[in-house]
Please model this.
Amino acid sequence: MKSKKKNYLTLNYIRKTHYKNQNIKTKSFDIPVDINDWLKNPYTFLKSKYFIETSALIVFFAQFTKITPNNLTTLYIILGFLGGLFLASNNNYLIVLSSIIFFTKSSLDWGDGFLAKIKNQTSNLGHILDNWGAKVGTCSFLAGFGFYLYNKNNDEIFILLLFFIIFLKALDMKEYAYHLTMFNFLREKNKKKLLGELNFKTNFLFKKKSTNLLNIKNFFHGFIDDRSRTIDLIFLLILIDNFYYSITILKYIYYYIAFKALVIFCGGIYVTAYKKNIFKK
Model:
């Protein structure tokens, strides 16, 4: 009995489908983004093209192998950890390698989901690994950035700020309350009813009009955040600082990150313990 011949996708088909999927995905964000608008979003336009093209190549070659989507995600997580380690190394070559890792590793993140659809291997574990990998990368970068500033300035304040930032992120009360509340909610509700309620809540929240306070909050969260545009800018400053001339603003960026972590931590306590917004939702 002859085995069925597997039909593989062409690179051109993968590219076109990937562009289409990413266009739909980015326009469905809370703050929609048009990755095709060069004038309005020049950085997003270029970076998204880079990620789509590189991830399409990864998916094209991976479909011929036994590589699974979770293998790509695991590599994405490992690279995030190594990138922070290399940044903290005080070695010029490894610092450059770290910048390359952080600039390119998201190609794996953009490709694992597409590969999962092609190989019919979508899973809850893959989704969890994907989001956890982003968190590993963020914490690794913040740690590496702190050690870089310590090595450059020989000032222990950056080591203290590093532990301060990681400590606040690890003990964020709002995030913990969400996890614990959802865990208890899942135990009490059946899946069908849960999905119905979540869809209702999501649609309701999206239809609410934004307020000035909400706009300020979004700006604060978005200014010097953990997205690739911010990390790429910081790495550009680090490379200039390391090879050409001193960039003093890097120290103040880290001070701001520590201040922002403190404000978000206190805000999480406020909305959880005093406003009780999580329990109302």
The chain is about 75% helix and 0% strand. Residues 200-210 have pLDDT under 50 and may be disordered. The chain has one domain: 66-280.
